[in-house]
Structures are given as structure tokens and as C-alpha cells.
């Protein structure tokens, strides 16, 4: 599953705008409105993240990698996003946050174009994986700087006003990447280049080369747009002035983090809440496209993009909206275990599909949509818990990033091993393992401490 946008709890002391509460219409349509850059900025962040950490796994499989290698290599690319709190203080030290956003987006755009060109080389896979690794570091930097522009250019009231737009814009990225780009790769492969859909190998290079050129163009256009409309972003009041000061802040943030009451219970919650989802994230799409004879459903990339990357992600958005309403009405302490059940129990749809291997696209779409809807519904509780219980303190933003980093670490570790486990067990037994992996999530949620007011 995709991660949530890396939005951070607002820190009013970093505000650079007016303290007067803006009206909805005035804020959205006034000259220099954040509507000019918040949607495009968070869409660009999400597009980069999903192309690197999710879509690459499908591409690797299309090019002939087995499930173990495809999931492993794609999961390694999550590492940079997991450790970005370690280099975030250093981004604060130099130039402006807008400068880092523009540089990152230009490098990402040129990098994806470079990947497309590198696919013509004899040893293209080695070069491509290396370039993806570099781009993941640049993408993590883009996230840090974009969040910095958002937090320091808008006051707390405006941040709250644009929070929904920010989240919606980020979630359009996965729909375009995992839905649109995967669909287009399959359409090009079968209808433009006239290759057989279910056969994996080098024939897929032509289609994926076009996809990477398209993503490169989108990212470069975003950079040029943000050059005109994005504010510079103010420096936070506690921004480090030297490398030594940045290192001290980073060290102090670690020390104070582990001094929190019941910190290990909260760490366990942050790492284990999505354990079963981590095992399902890469293997779910593989299950969709693998031949029926190998235990899969035999779908084309076009159907995968439509069902898994479009219908499924729309279900995530709807589930997230309703989950937020559910938590707002009843409070997090009363709902957290229910939300954990929502995240984990619907994984059974993949177990049932692996047993019966349905051919009806309506049944397959319903199975995916159910799992995704309840994942979105329940994941709201996870993010709110990090904001309300794990993050508060001297370094609210950094400690929130530690929590999301732990989630990313879980996604990376489970992703690395998931393909190899699936190859050893087969799909039916593997999805039984996924269901067993829900047990730790229930345990850590049941014992998750609440020390701050809901």
C-alpha cells in the first residue's frame, strides 16, 4: 500500500503568514493562493514515490524477474523514504526550501528520462536499479522540502484549510502511477507494439521506456510551474546554522524520543500495525498478473491498472474519508481496535481469490475494492495515533517522522522477504501466512498506550 502524504503536524512558530483565519473562498481564490502549488506539489511527491516503490515492482516482473527479485529490488527503494528524518535537519541549513524542491524535481525528471535511455544498454538492469536508488534519495529530499514549504509558508489556520486538498492531491498520484501508467504500459505492449500480454521478458522494454519518458515530462513541467508559483518557504525558528548544530538536534531528537513514556509499546505499534499489509503490498499485484497455472488470476497490465490501481485506490480514498468521520465522532481510544480489524481482516479476500481463482472481473474488482476500502478506513487511526500520541513533545515534527519511518521500515522489510516467501509457499499458503501476520497487529493495538488528550 502506498504511504500517506508526509504531511506533518503544524508548528505555529514556523508560520510566515497572517494569523487571521481565512475564509474558504478567499484563501482558495486570492492572488498567490496555495491552490496554485499545494495540489501540484503533493501530486509530484506522490507520483515519484509510487513510481519508485510500487510501479517498479510491476515493471521488474514484466521484464522477466521472478517474484522474489521483483519485490526485493522495489522494496529497497523504500529505504531513502524511511531514513529521511536523518537528513531532514541538513536541508534546513542551505538556500531555500523552494530551491530544494525545484532541484529535486528537475533531477527526478532528468533521472526518469535517463532510465528510459538506459534501457537500451546491454546491462540496463544494473544501471536502472542504481539510478532508481539515486532517485529515491532525491525523491525523499523533495518530500522534506515540499513539506517545509507547506509548513513555513502557511499559518496554522490555512494549513488546516488545505489539509484535505493536500491529502487528496497526494492520493491522485497513486491513481495516476499505479492505475494510469500501469494500464498504459499494458495497452502499449499489446495494442501498439503488438506483443503478447501474458509473456514476460525484454519485449516489455519498449512500453516501459515510453512510460518513463511521460513521467519525466510531467515532473519537469511541475518543476517549471513551481518555479513561477511556489513560495520560497521561511526558515523555521529552530533551524540549525551549522552541521554540528544539525547533528546535535538530530541526536537530541533521538534521545528525547526514547525518553517518552511507554515508548517501546508505541514503537511496536508503529512498526507492526501494517505488518500484514507489508506482506500483501507487492504480492497482491503479482497475484493478479501471474498465469492461472501458477496460481494467479492471469490479468493483463491493463486490467491490473484498472482494477488494482484505479478502482482499488478510489476505494482507499472513500475509506479514508469515512474512517476520518468515524474517528472524529467517536474518538481514537474507542475506535483504534475496530480500525485495526478493518485494516487486517479484509485481507481474507485475497486468500479466497487464491483458493477459487475467479475469472469474473466483477468478483475480482469487488475483492480488491473491499480490501482497499477497509485499509483506507482503518489506516486513518494509525496516522492519527502517531500525531496525537507518539509525536507530541519537543520535536513534534521529527518524532512524527520517526513514526512514519518505522512504518516505512516495516513495509521495506516485509517487501524484501515477501516475494521469496510466496515462491516457496505458493499463493494459497502465502495468503494464509498474511492472515497469521495480522495477529501481532491486534496485540500491539490492544496494548497501545494513550497518554495525551484525544
Automatic annotation (TrEMBL):
It holds the Pfam family MFS_1. Residues 34-453 form the Major facilitator superfamily (MFS) profile domain. The keyword Membrane applies. Residues 1-20 are annotated as: Disordered. The chain crosses the membrane at residues 36-58, 70-87, 99-118, 124-140, 161-188, 208-225, 263-283, 303-327, 334-356, 362-387, 399-421, 427-448. PROSITE patterns: MFS. Keywords: Membrane, Transmembrane, Transmembrane helix, Transport. It is a multi-pass membrane protein. InterPro entries: AmpG_permease/AT-1, MFS, MFS_dom, MFS_trans_sf. Its main location: membrane. It is found in: Membrane. This is PAT family beta-lactamase induction signal transducer AmpG. It comes from Duganella violaceipulchra.
Amino acid at each position: 500500500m502506498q504511504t500517506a502524504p508526509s504531511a506533518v503536524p503544524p508548528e505555529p512558530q514556523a508560520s510566515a503568514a497572517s494569523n487571521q483565519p481565512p475564509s474558504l473562498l478567499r484563501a482558495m481564490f486570492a492572488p498567490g493562493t496555495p491552490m496554485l502549488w499545494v495540489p501540484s506539489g503533493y501530486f509530484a511527491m506522490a507520483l515519484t514515490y509510487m513510481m519508485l516503490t510500487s510501479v517498479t515492482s510491476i515493471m521488474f516482473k514484466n521484464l522477466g524477474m521472478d517474484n522474489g527479485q521483483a519485490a526485493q529490488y522495489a522494496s529497497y527503494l523504500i529505504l531513502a523514504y524511511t531514513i529521511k528524518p536523518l537528513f531532514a535537519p541538513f536541508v534546513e541549513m542551505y538556500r531555500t526550501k523552494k530551491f530544494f524542491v525545484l532541484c529535486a524535481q528537475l533531477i527526478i525528471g532528468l533521472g526518469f528520462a535517463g532510465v528510459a535511455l538506459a534501457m537500451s544498454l546491454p546491462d540496463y538492469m544494473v544501471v536502472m536499479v542504481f539510478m532508481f536508488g539515486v532517485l529515491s534519495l532525491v525523491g525523499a529530499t523533495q518530500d522534506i522540502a515540499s513539506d517545509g514549504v507547506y509548513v513555513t509558508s502557511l499559518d496554522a489556520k490555512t494549513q488546516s484549510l488545505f489539509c484535505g486538498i493536500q491529502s487528496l492531491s497526494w492520493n491522485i498520484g497513486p491513481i495516476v502511477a499505479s492505475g494510469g501508467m500501469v494500464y498504459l504500459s499494458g495497452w502499449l505492449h499489446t495494442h501498439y507494439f503488438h506483443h503478447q500480454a501474458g509473456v514476460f521478458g525484454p519485449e516489455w522494454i519498449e512500453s516501459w521506456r515510453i512510460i518513463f519518458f511521460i513521467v519525466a515530462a510531467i515532473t519537469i513541467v511541475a518543476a517549471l510551474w513551481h518555479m513561477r508559483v511556489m513560495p520560497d518557504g521561511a526558515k523555521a525558528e529552530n533551524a540549525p546554522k551549522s552541521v554540528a548544530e544539525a547533528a546535535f538536534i538530530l541526536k537530541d531528537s533521538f534521545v528525547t524520543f526514547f525518553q517518552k513514556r511507554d515508548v517501546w509499546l508505541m514503537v511496536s505499534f508503529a512498526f507492526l500495525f501494517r505488518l500484514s499489509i507489508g506482506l500483501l503490498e507487492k504480492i497482491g499485484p503479482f497475484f493478479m498478473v501471474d498465469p492461472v497455472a501458477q496460481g494467479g488470476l492471469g490479468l493483463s497490465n491493463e486490467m491490473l491498472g484498472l482494477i488494482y490501481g484505479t478502482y482499488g485506490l478510489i476505494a482507499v480514498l472513500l475509506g479514508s474519508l469515512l474512517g476520518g468521520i468515524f474517528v472524529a465522532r467517536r474518538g481514537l481510544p474507542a475506535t483504534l481496535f475496530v480500525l485495526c480489524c478493518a485494516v487486517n481482516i479484509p485481507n481474507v479476500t485475497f486468500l479466497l481469490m487464491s483458493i477459487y481463482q475467479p475469472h469474473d472481473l466483477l468478483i475480482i474488482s469487488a475483492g480488491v475494492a473491499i480490501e482497499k476500502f477497509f485499509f483506507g478506513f482503518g489506516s486513518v487511526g494509525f496516522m492519527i495515533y502517531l500525531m496525537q500520541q507518539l509525536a507530541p513533545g519537543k520535536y513534534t515534527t521529527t518524532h512524527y517522522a520517526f513514526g512514519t519511518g518505522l512504518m516505512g521500515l516495516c513495509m521495506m522489510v516485509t517487501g524484501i522477504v515477501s516475494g521469496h516467501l510466496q515462491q516457496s509457499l505458493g499463493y494459497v499458503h502465502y495468503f494464509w501466512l498474511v492472515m497469521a501476520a495480522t495477529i501481532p497487529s491486534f496485540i500491539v493495538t490492544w496494548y497501545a498506550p494513550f497518554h495525551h488528550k484525544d
